[in-house]
Amino acid sequence: MTHFTQINPPHRLLMGPGPINADPRVLRAMASQLLGQYDPAMTHYMNEVMEMYRALFRTENRWTLLVDGTSRAGIEAVLMSVICPGDKVLVPVFGRFGQLLCEIARRCRAEVHTIEIPWGDVFEPGRIEDAIKRVRPRILLTVQGDTSTTMLQPLDQLGEICRRNDVLFYTDATASIGGNPLEADAWGLDAVSAGLQKCLGGPSGSAPVTLSDRCAAAIRRRAHVEEGIRTPLHRPGDEEIIYSNYFDLAMIMDYWGPERLNHHTEATSMLFAARECARLLLEEGVDMAVARHKIHGDAMLAGIGGMDLAVFGDIRHKMNNVLGVVIPPGIDGEQVRGMMLSDFAIEIGTSFGPLHGKIWRIGTMGYNARKDCVMQTLAALEGVLNRLGYTCPQGAGLQAAWDSYGTAARRATCPG
Ligand SMILES: Cc1ncc(COP(=O)(O)O)c(C=O)c1O
Fold this sequence. Notes:
CATH topology of the largest domain: Aspartate Aminotransferase, domain 2
CATH class of the largest domain: Alpha Beta
Strand content: 5-15%
CATH superfamily of the largest domain: Type I PLP-dependent aspartate aminotransferase-like (Major domain)
Bound molecules: pyridoxal-5'-phosphate
Shape: globular
Radius of gyration: 22 Å
Helix content: 40-55%
Strand order of the largest sheet: 2-10-9-8-5-3-4
Largest sheet: 7 strands, mixed
CATH architecture of the largest domain: 3-Layer(aba) Sandwich
Structural class: alpha/beta
Number of domains: 2
Order of helices and strands: EHHEHEHEHEEEHEEEHHHHEHEEHH
Number of strands: 13
Distance between the termini: 67 Å
């Protein structure tokens, strides 16, 4: 038999659009010993996780819990549990992850309507309202930060529009939570799903979800406790069953609620990770974490500008935590990524669809939203580009980033 060595991954600095290096404290939490599902210590942790993510999502929603699986599992759980076959949904698509919402909604047998804009832009609220009036959807499905384009869709006015038109309002905040403002209650969101592997500084594999009372009530109307654990006291909901067992949020709520009705076996190590991610963010303060992402995102933006590289998209709507950098003419983007990895152990991101081969995506998020990570990445990129024939003034990227940090520090000491 072949001798397999112990896992010992090479050292990498992950500066792409996520995943990023996990915070060592999150990794340590994951190495904790397992507990039984109904051990009071375990259910106590589950309740703490609910409380912590309420603070992170900025909500009072009772139903704030984890779906076991990557962020896509959180999206699929919400869409499967809310959309009944034949429901109309509206998706404003401004990148790949809007397309993913359409894809999942179609598999829920929704009637999917889209509005589109070129990648690199975001929607005006008025355009979304016009489409809502025309389509009359049951749900508006949005992406807050679409990492494929690096753009952040403003959501603050959409909840009000949805209420006026009796539409449920969902957003995928996988890539934005913790690094950009998100106000689930103040913005009238009915459902939000997220992930750990971006600004929360964890690994992928757990999807925090929050549901408003009206959204939870809509899901409850489809409740159907599975055979084997059902008792005569469990009355089925009076609406169509949810066509997934694993992603049935009505059953997942019963598991996280006081009944602790068995569903799946909670992914304990991931719950420990999710708890530590939230704990770290709350310890720092959500607003401080967002400000940190802005400071390092701005420094990366300044550094890229200092190298005379163009940035992608409507920069006014850029996410704090990821930047699209236009690959200069005559430069092979994949060769640059290859040299960054082999010679500096730094990963920067490629891109999808219409942007493939045109931009790199460089992240500054979670544990890697730090000055040393920004400076190392800029220095390495400048070196590689110069080596491949794109000449830029020596050290200009680093100097511009330093200036940006200086401005941020002055702003912090003399606000206004
Ligand atoms: C905005 C957005 N939504 C969803 C996903 C899918 O996440 P996962 O790969 O964890 O399922 C990603 C991953 O990059 C993302 O950026």
